[in-house]
Amino acid sequence: MSLILLIEQVLNGIQFGVMLFLMAAGLTLIFGVMGLINLAHGSLYMVGAFAAATVAGWTGSFTLALVAALAAAAAAGALVELLVIRRLYDRDHLDQVLATFALILIFSEGTRYVFGSFPLFLDIPAALSGPVVLPGGIFYPLYRLVIIAVGLLVAAGLFVLIAKTRIGIQIRAGEADREMIAALGVDISKLYTLVFALGAALAGLAGALVGAIQSVQVGMGEPVLILAFVVIVIGGIGSIKGALVGALLVGLTDTLGGALLPTLFATFMEPSSANTIGSAVASMAIYILMAGVLLFKPSGLFGAT
Amino acid sequence: MKIKSLIAAVSIAALGSGAAWADAHSSKVKVGMITTLSGGGAGLGIDVRDGFMLAAKGNDNLELVIEDDQRKPDVAVQLADKLIQSEKVDVLTGIIWSNLAMAVVPAATAQGKFYLSPNAGPSALAGKGCSPLYFNVAWQNDAFNEAAGAWANDNGIKKVFLMAPNYPAGQDMIAGFKRTYKGDVVEEVYTKLGQTDYAAEIAQMRASDADTIYFFLPGGMGISFMKQYAGSGVDKAVMGPAFSFDQGILGAIGDAALGVKNTSHWSKDIDNEANKKFVADFQAEYGRLPSLYAAQGYDTALLLQSAMGKADVKDAAAFQAALEEADFASVRGKFAFAPNHHPIQDIFMREVVKEGDVVTNKVIGIASPDHQDVYGADCKL
Questions:
Q1: Touching check for B228 and chain A: CB below 8 Å?
Q2: For B39, which of A129, A144, A218 is closest by C-beta distance?
Q3: Strand pairing partners for A265?
Q4: pLDDT at A1
Q5: In 3-state terms, what secondary structure has residue A25?
Q6: Which of A81, A113, A64 is closest to B38 using CA atoms?
Q7: Which of A40, B190, B339, B357 is the most exposed place for a label (fewest CB within 10 A)?
Q8: B6 at the A interface (CB within 8 A)?
Q9: Which CDD domains does this UniProt record tie to the protein (chain A) (predicted)?
């Protein structure tokens, strides 16, 4: 395997990781602040992708499509929080899982009803399409670089928001002791709606960005949701830093595992079985990673102990 | 999601085509269709369904129950049990994916039900696992690929990079290509079925010294791959069986596919009366160009109705004999069944061209005349 190929695969892994981060950040915030397991987070990702595809179809503008994805996912998130989630904070996790699973079904069938079962396709804007040449003669699709940049910007923005702003202080306080900050006069229900909408908007952004390189279809959120849960378990539940590190680890492990393991196995066994066994092990790699992390750090890399 | 449709009675005069089933002694048949109507594979199932319904339109002896398998083998098995046990269908059809076919077909034929495959053609069902009640109206999985391998030999393709999803059809397609192709296989990559991101595979393609990428990715997988490939700047030629470049995929990827060669048993420009009528009727009924899946669904319904005109489905031996005759005007032109109930048919080479604003396929020659699969030798029928 040449160095150029390795670098390209590393970039692919980072791009995948950054996309997972956008999903996992919202999930971990919501769990950390409200103690809520939100299985419907993948549906918000789907809402973002469908909103982007629809608006891009109407206007032809990718910028407007992204704005629409953020707005639609945030609105859907806020609405869901007000109507359903709000009633679940005091219930146990099993009730939350049940209710948010019901939301997945409602979102999926609702989307199918409106848009049909046929996948939609969102085009990459002309200005961002095609490859760029990186130092060292590496060709890489510009759009994927943009996804990496957007993800890292969002990560930086979230750190500033949590660490430096008044909202961030309230979020951190809410994580630590929700009765106390309510007693101190913070409108906790408004704060919860806000956090939920923020998490939803990030998921919607991820959906729209990824929708342009893959396809926009009903049920697209669930495979990503599972990986996002793996990410927050690895990173430590409630920690944004953990979500970023966990997402990059999972993205790199998955991509490099898939690319390297079959080659590695081929050094000591027949090519055809190396291919099969290599891909099988590669698809388990992130779960092995998760098990390994939990063995040494039961609450995740950056989890509160 | 369940669509139950009872094909309404229409007077025989209105059919206009004087089809074979238009005889008063025709037997009644209840057909269960299990196909993929949601998710990334929905386009294929929808086309098979629409093609089938177009050919069966107005036949009040044919009752059709349609179910969505969501491309999940477990769902398909449940649906088959339900259709056989509570709906009491006589004939099953509709499955798109070979892994689902392997899960459903052997059990269905063991329970005495006919199965007409409008798409999947796994090698196991063409060889040792063949059944007197199983008929493949589409192709054996290897067929297009054997033709493509032979064509590649004659057209200076020296080094190929092979890619297909890791499931029975993907393995058959690659095996079929390698059976006839004499050049170098630089790399052979199997992806997950339903995979949507091909960045890692595209990086491998860029790094390899292959001159041509030969891939099998039907439905949404093909669309995702081709869009990402076009954006990656890799400039190796691409080629594949028709499934990677069918009308649904071309509509979504557009100009990026122009000039690509692909092998198929059908194309909308094959010059025969049945095909002209099919293409015109399909466009009039559904407002879009038909794909090869639609053509296969259409032929499946024509075959079924030709047998219904000759025998009662309750008399399995007679109905089987009627199906074996394949006495219908296929949209592909020539069509006959080999002893293992798989087609003997011409495989064409097609090229992706632009007709006005529409990107579509055009036949440029016959890649393999009277093609027959190699597995029939193992089939004891």
A1: yes
A2: A218
A3: none
A4: 61
A5: helix
A6: A113
A7: B357
A8: no
A9: TM_PBP1_LivH_like (cd06582)
∠ Cα B181 B186 B190 (to 5°) = 90
Check residue B173 and give its pLDDT: 95
Is B200:A2 a contact under the CB 8 Å cutoff?
A: no
A chain contacts of residue B217, beta-carbon cutoff 8 Å: none
- Say yes or no for a CB contact (<8 Å) between A213 and B204: no
Residue B25 has pLDDT above 70, yes or no: no
CATH hierarchy code of domain B2-139+269-337: 3.40.50.2300
Angle at B165 between CA B163 and CA B166, to 5 degrees: 115
Average pLDDT, chain B: 90
User: What pTM did the predictor assign?
Assistant: 0.86
Strands B358-371 and B343-355: antiparallel
Note whether B209 contacts A: Cβ–Cβ < 8 A: no
| B26 — pLDDT class (breaks 50, 70, 90) | low
Residues of A with CB under 8 A from a CB of B: 1-2, 4-5, 8-9, 12, 15-16, 112, 117-119, 121, 124, 129-131, 139, 141, 143-144, 213-215, 217-220, 255, 258-259, 271-272, 275-276, 279, 283
B contact residues 29-88, partner A, Cβ 8 Å cutoff = 37-40, 42-43, 46
- The confidence score (pLDDT) of residue B158 equals 95
Please report the number of interchain residue pairs, chain A to chain B, with beta-carbon separation below 8 angstroms: 93
Yes or no, beta carbons of B206 and A5 under 8 Å apart = yes
User: What ranges do the domains of chain B cover?
Assistant: 2-139+269-337, 143-264+346-378
- Pick one of 2.30.30, 2.60.40, 1.10.20, 1.10.3470 as the CATH number of A3-296: 1.10.3470
Give B62-106 pLDDT, tens digit per residue.
Answer: 999 999 998 999 999 999 999 999 999 999 999 999 999 999 999
Report, as ranges of residue numbers, the positions in chain A whose pLDDT lies below 50.
none
Q: Residue B10 pLDDT > 50, yes or no? A: no
CATH class for the domain made up of B143-264+346-378: alpha beta
Distances (CA, A) of B92 to B62, B104, B293: 12, 10, 17
Cα dist from B381 to B116, B317, B340, B375, whole Å: 17, 13, 7, 13
Residue to substitute from A2, A3, A7, A8, interface B, most B β-carbons within 10 A: A8
From CA A21, how far away is CA B223, in angstroms rounded? 26
Q: Between these two residues, B334 and B254, which has the higher pLDDT value?
A: B334
